[in-house]
Amino acid sequence: WVGTDYGLACRDDKGWAFYGDPPFCSVQTLAEDRAGRLWVCGGASGEVGILHGSSWTSIALDEIAPGPIAVDARGDVWVSGDDMRGVARWPSEDLPTAVRSNLGTPEPVPAGSLGAAPNPFNQQVEVRFTLPRAASIELQVFDVAGQLVATLAQGSYPAGVHTVVWDAATRGRDLASGVYLCRLTGAGQPVVRKLSLLR
């Protein structure tokens, strides 16, 4: 398994396969638990992703920004956070319900949607987000290392479609070409979309 800016790549005896979901995941670290689930941490979403067979699940962590992840000899899953927030631990006998198998499909939770055009873009991109209900949201842009680049919107917004424009010049200096992650939080499950800046 290889983590990339775009998801996961896997090589077996048949060759390479690429997993482009979940879209939140600029994959930085991987760990496999005793049940064969692959635990994945991305750079900007504040979530941990779990690949079980061909199914993805994600868990949002409110207290830490997830970084390196590991499974110890007892089967406990450990996730380290940023410098100020410490670590999270899931004991092997009490792994999150969201990743236990054979529990059926969870009820869908209404969430916001996020789009961008043009994408790839050269200097400016129009970011459109839709809220199913009024919410206090944050719309932020991160680089693939998880560093905050810009806050595009913040505060209370009514239900409906909203549009903002991101200019990729920060404090008068242009950002480098590459992939950036635009994240919408506060409207249900966090939503992340990749933005490709081409100079």
Salient structural properties:
199 residues; mainly beta; four-stranded antiparallel sheet; 19 strands; 0% helix
Give me a quick take on this structure:
The chain has 199 residues and is an all-beta fold.
Would you mind describing this structure in some detail?
The protein is mainly beta and 199 residues long. 0% of the residues lie in helices and 52% in strands. A four-stranded antiparallel β-sheet has the order 4-5-6-7, with no helix packed on it. It is globular, with a radius of gyration of 18 Å. The two termini are 31 Å apart. About 7% of the residues have low confidence.
What string, H for helix and E for strand, traces the elements in order? EEEEEEEEEEEEEEEEEEE
Widest sheet: strand ordering: 4-5-6-7
**Mean of residue pLDDT values:** 75
Shape summary? globular
Oligomer: single chain
- Outline the biggest β-sheet: 4 strands, antiparallel
Number of helices: 0
Number of strands: 19
Distance between the termini: 31 Å
Structure class: mainly beta
If you compute it from the alpha carbons, what radius of gyration comes out, rounded to the nearest whole angstrom? Answer: 18 Å
What percent of the residues sit in helical stretches (DSSP H or I)?
under 10%
What percentage of amino acids are in beta strands? over 45%
Low-confidence blocks of residues: 97-110
Mind sketching the topology for me?
Blueprint: E1 2-4, E2 7-12, E3 15-19, E4 29-32, E5 38-41, E6 47-52, E7 55-60, E8 69-71, E9 77-80, E10 87-90, E11 113-117, E12 124-131, E13 135-143, E14 148-157, E15 160-167, E16 169-170, E17 173-174, E18 178-185, E19 191-197
Antiparallel strand pairs: 1-2, 2-3, 4-5, 5-6, 6-7, 8-9, 9-10, 11-12, 12-15, 13-14, 13-18, 16-17, 18-19
